[in-house]
Design goal:
Elements (H helix, E strand, L loop, with lengths): L10 E7 L2 E6 L5 E3 L23 E6 L5 E5 L5 E2 L1
Antiparallel strand pairs: 1-2, 2-3, 4-5, 5-6
The structure holds zinc ion (2 copies).
Length: about 80
């Protein structure tokens, strides 16, 4: 279990969020839901609509933090 932000392993419990156990990173204070506890098959990347126009999008590789990037087919904006 690591902090998704700073990769620290100093994690403690922080109650629940929307019914799921939340964790807090002691190093950077970042709070997140422990995804390791969620059951079921591995999830595909959720289909994301463009935050600018709500249009459809396609994947467009990853940025330097290896986050998935998308390009909107309609307005051509790129977002993560
Ligand atoms: Zn952290
Ligand atoms: Zn768009």
């Amino acid at each position: 279990m690591e902090c998704p932000k700073c990769n620290s392993t100093s994690i403690s419990k922080a109650g629940t969020r929307r019914g799921k156990p939340a964790k807090i990173c002691k190093s950077c204070g970042y709070q997140f839901v422990d995804k390791a506890l969620s059951v079921g098959r591995p999830q595909l990347a959720p289909t994301q609509n463009c935050p600018y126009c709500g249009g459809d999008n396609r994947k467009r590789g990853s940025d330097r933090y290896s986050r998935q990037r998308y390009e909107c087919k309609d307005c051509k904006r790129i977002f993560t």
